[in-house]
């Protein structure tokens, strides 16, 4: 089992004042009760990142900071986009690549996902590649082939240095923000499938996370029975209490307490 990783994707929620407040709350709880066996990452909106990293540094909060997206381009005439070097300069070390909301609502194709992932890793940041099927695909039983194709498109031909900078998040689209969580059996099967495909692409031992309506109640079972290396959490990451309860479940599972 890899050391667990729990990432909170705040999506387009929390302005910079609210973001600072949440990180301070997380810091207070972690100071009293550190989570020694889990890596915690928060992924705020771009405009909050500087404020969040300042609090993390000045108050020594044991979390790292990520970004929800980055431009495939390094610089230039790309109005509205934010580049990987800009994010790196802000202290960002993780970038979500190909979140299903980017794929569905902002026309992020498999090709752009692959190129973005290469831009992220070229600068030495870790790319959290998001994959997962829509409900119709799951209903027709084609989820393995669908996810295989996404993995091949994004990771095929990746150089060795970049391969060490990839984490994969399995996020069935039908479970994101819906309250419908994949069963532990579904998560386990897909996690095993992803590990097999990743190994065939020379990404042995890659961390595989699950995302899709994870909360304080279901995290422990998803972790131990679903055999994941952690979570990508949306809604439940907006409150310190629920985010850290998920972190605690991952921590205890790794520590053999569950
Ligand atoms: C997500 O945004 O990646 C996600 C999994 O959201 P939620 O936890 O709200 O389903």
Give a short overview.
With 258 residues, the chain is an alpha/beta fold.
Write a structural description.
This protein has one domain: TIM Barrel (Alpha-Beta Barrel), CATH 3.20.20. It is built from 11 helices and 8 strands. The chain has helices at 16-32, 49-58, 84-89, 100-105, 110-122, 135-139, 143-155, 160-163, 184-200, 219-224, 240-254; strands at residues 5-9, 39-43, 64-67, 94-97, 126-131, 166-170, 207-210, 230-233. Helix 9 links the parallel strand 6 (166-170) and strand 7 (207-210). Helix 5 (110-122) crosses helix 7. The mean pLDDT is 96. Residues 9, 11, 171, 176-177, 211-214, 232-236 line the site of phosphoenolpyruvate (PEP).
């Amino acid at each position: 089992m890899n050391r667990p990783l729990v990432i909170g994707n705040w999506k387009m929620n929390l302005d910079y004042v609210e973001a600072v407040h949440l990180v301070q709350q997380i810091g207070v709880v972690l100071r009293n009760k550190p989570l020694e066996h889990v890596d915690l990452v928060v992924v705020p909106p771009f405009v909050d990142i500087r404020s969040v990293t300042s609090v993390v540094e000045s108050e020594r909060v044991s979390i790292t900071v990520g970004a929800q997206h980055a431009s495939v381009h390094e610089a230039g005439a790309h109005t509205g986009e934010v580049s990987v070097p800009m994010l790196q300069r802000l202290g960002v070390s993780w970038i979500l690549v190909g979140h299903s909301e980017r794929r569905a609502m902002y026309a992020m194709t498999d090709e752009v996902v692959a190129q973005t992932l290469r831009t992220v890793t070229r600068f030495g940041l870790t790319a959290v590649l998001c994959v997962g099927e829509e409900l119709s695909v799951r209903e027709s039983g084609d989820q393995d082939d669908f996810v295989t194709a996404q993995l091949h498109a994004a990771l095929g031909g990746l150089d060795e240095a970049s391969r060490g900078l990839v984490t994969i998040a399995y996020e069935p689209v039908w479970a994101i923000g819906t309250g419908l969580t994949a069963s532990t059996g579904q998560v386990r099967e897909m996690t095993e499938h992803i590990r097999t495909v990743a190994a065939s692409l020379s990404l042995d031992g890659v961390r595989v996370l699950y995302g899709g309506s994870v909360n304080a109640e279901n995290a422990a079972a998803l972790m131990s029975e679903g055999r994941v290396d952690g979570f990508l959490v949306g809604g439940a990451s907006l409150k310190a209490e629920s985010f850290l309860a998920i972190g605690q479940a991952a921590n205890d599972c790794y520590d053999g307490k569950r």
